[in-house]
């Protein structure tokens, strides 16, 4: 005899459960925040008080899980200078000028998202653009990938950066023919300016949080893996969870070089619940392809003197290995950013060392981005049980220019299908705000790849699984998220039936998301 009666019964739907044993049904019953049952005839769970929702043929999928975002930074970018909208030098200057109007004189300005490959006039930003648009304002506007930025003269002066300033370890200060800084700062060089920016206030963090949550939920994202770069953000999100103010579920990762600080917090005891959980450490091994800082085994085709750089985290690999090993022994994951083929190989080497040293366990190490993987290394993922945490939107963006940078090596760029065939687990994400946190667009990108190297295209069903069940698995949440089955949390998205035909349309359709539910409630 059933002890629970459904509060809501959803009927006449195409319910794609992501449960291997029970993959598609027409009905789903929920009680409170829990899924009670899925099937084709659930009226045994009903009574006359129950609410019936007719889905009218709509598709229902688990709430999308974005395995890799920068949660609070994403909200901030929606509230600061929208340099992503710039299509030319004049656009760029006008966007900054409009934003600066009415701001206090000489106040710090923030923003970013620019991508020089989208500029129709083939220009490249420098400090003069910012000085013209907002004279006297210190600012640094990050490139869309977050791995380089353009700083104003006022910001460079505050940071003491001039022709005599050496490049910091893990960073590059671009210079003109006379040795003067152009304003472009790559990787760790951005930190020379950013350390002078005022700290975020509580009010700013709250505003960023609210903006982030609304943005994500509107796009069907109910859970994220948050790659936290500021320990203050970890403390803030923990407090928000304690106060019941999180609307999106957060699986948190903290900076690998802050392990001692994080370990102390863990020993004191941290707050966790169904909305906020801590899973491990996030580190960097290299930069990004567009900034020419992704670490490659051979030089770039268009820059024969450069094969990328090591990120500052990778300065002391012995320390990184020690931190990963200590966290692993305590049951925490490590997830490492690696984009270039050399970076991926060296991260796998470190993971292998730790695995051999600590012995078997369910650790789920992850390579974040895993964009360019030498064929010799692709099979190593499955052999080491390492997850490839990938962002198909980056593939679509890079398709505009990557052939010029890598030539024939593009044959093993974003090797989604090759990894899948090698039994590697792929978890999908966006790296928002680097790319939009838009699961429909992400899945479309994996399936269509902008027509680029289609031998590595991913199927629609496999892509949906990577953005739900496997993304949950990548964050140790498969026990309650990512699958529509009895006992799991009732987080799900209702989609237009056209979602099933996403693999047949070249353009990303709009308006597919009809409703989003968290804990069984429409949000």
Characterize the structure shown.
The chain has 523 residues and is of the alpha/beta class. Among the domains are: 105 residues, Urease, subunit C, domain 1 (Roll); 120 residues, Diaminopimelate Epimerase, Chain A, domain 1. 30% of the residues lie in helices and 22% in strands. The protein is built from 17 helices and 24 strands. The chain has an eight-stranded parallel sheet with strand order 8-15-16-17-18-19-20-21. A hairpin with a 7-residue loop joins strand 2 and strand 3. Helix 1 packs across helix 6, helix 2 packs across helix 3 and helix 9 packs across helix 10. The longest helix has 18 residues. The radius of gyration is 23 Å and the shape is globular. The mean pLDDT is 96.
Summarize the structure.
The chain has 523 residues and is of the alpha/beta class. The chain has 17 helices and 24 strands.
Query: Which value, in Å, is the CA radius of gyration?
Result: 23 Å
In CATH terms, what is the architecture of the domain at 75-194? Roll
Strand order of the largest sheet: 8-15-16-17-18-19-20-21
Largest sheet: 8 strands, parallel
How much of the sequence lies in strands comes to 15-25%
> How many distinct beta strands?
24
- CATH fold assignment of the domain at 75-194: Diaminopimelate Epimerase, Chain A, domain 1
> What percentage of residues falls in helices of 4 or more residues?
25-40%
Separate helix tally: 17
The CATH class assignment of the domain at 75-194 is: Alpha Beta
């Amino acid at each position: 005899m059933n002890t629970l009666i459904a509060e809501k019964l959803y009927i006449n739907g195409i319910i794609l459960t992501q449960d291997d044993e029970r993959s598609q049904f027409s009905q789903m019953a929920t009680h409170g925040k829990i899924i009670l049952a899925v099937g084709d005839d659930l009226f045994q769970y009903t009574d006359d008080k129950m609410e019936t929702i007719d889905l009218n043929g709509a598709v229902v999928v688990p709430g999308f899980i974005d395995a890799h975002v920068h949660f609070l930074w994403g909200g901030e970018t929606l509230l600061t200078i929208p340099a992503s909208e710039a299509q030319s030098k004049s656009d760029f200057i006008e966007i900054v000028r409009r934003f600066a109007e009415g701001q206090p004189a000489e106040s710090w300005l923030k923003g970013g998202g620019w991508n020089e490959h989208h500029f129709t006039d083939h220009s490249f930003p420098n400090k003069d653009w910012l000085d013209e648009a907002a004279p006297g304002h210190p600012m640094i506007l990050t490139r869309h990938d977050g791995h380089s930025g353009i700083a104003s003269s006022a910001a460079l002066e505050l940071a003491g950066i001039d022709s005599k300033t050496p490049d910091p370890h893990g960073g590059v200060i671009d210079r003109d023919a006379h040795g003067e800084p152009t304003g472009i700062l790559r990787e760790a060089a951005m930190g020379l300016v950013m350390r002078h920016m005022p700290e975020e206030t509580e009010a700013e963090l709250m505003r960023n949080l609210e903006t982030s949550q609304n943005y994500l939920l509107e796009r069907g994202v109910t859970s994220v893996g948050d790659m936290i770069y500021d320990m203050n953000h970890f403390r803030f999100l923990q407090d928000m969870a304690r106060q019941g103010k999180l609307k999106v579920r957060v699986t948190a990762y903290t900076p690998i070089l802050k392990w001692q600080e994080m370990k102390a917090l863990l020993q004191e005891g941290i707050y966790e619940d169904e909305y906020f959980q801590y899973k491990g450490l996030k580190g960097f091994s290299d930069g990004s392809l567009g900034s020419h800082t992704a670490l490659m085994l051979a030089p770039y085709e268009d820059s024969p003197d450069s094969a990328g750089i090591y990120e500052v985290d990778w300065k002391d690999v012995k320390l990184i290995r020690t931190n990963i090993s200590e966290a692993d022994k305590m049951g925490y994951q490590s997830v490492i950013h690696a984009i270039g083929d050399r970076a991926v190989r060296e991260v796998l080497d470190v993971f292998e060392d730790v695995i051999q040293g600590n012995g078997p366990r369910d650790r789920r190490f992850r390579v974040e981005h895993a964009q360019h993987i030498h064929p010799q290394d692709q099979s190593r993922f499955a052999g080491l049980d390492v997850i490839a945490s990938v962002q198909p939107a980056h593939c679509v963006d890079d398709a505009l220019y990557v052939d010029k940078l890598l030539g024939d090596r593009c044959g093993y760029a974003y090797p989604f299908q090759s990894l899948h065939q090698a039994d590697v687990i792929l978890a999908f994400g966006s790296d928002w705000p680097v790319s939009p946190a838009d699961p429909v667009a992400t899945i479309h990108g994996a399936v269509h790849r902008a027509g680029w190297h289609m031998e590595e295209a991913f199927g629609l069903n496999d892509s949906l699984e990577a953005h739900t069940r496997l993304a949950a698995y990548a964050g140790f949440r498969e026990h309650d998220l990512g699958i529509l089955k009895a006992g799991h949390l009732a987080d799900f998205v209702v989609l237009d039936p056209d979602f099933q035909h996403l693999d047949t349309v070249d353009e990303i359709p709009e308006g597919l998301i009809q409703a989003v539910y968290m804990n069984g409630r429409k949000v």
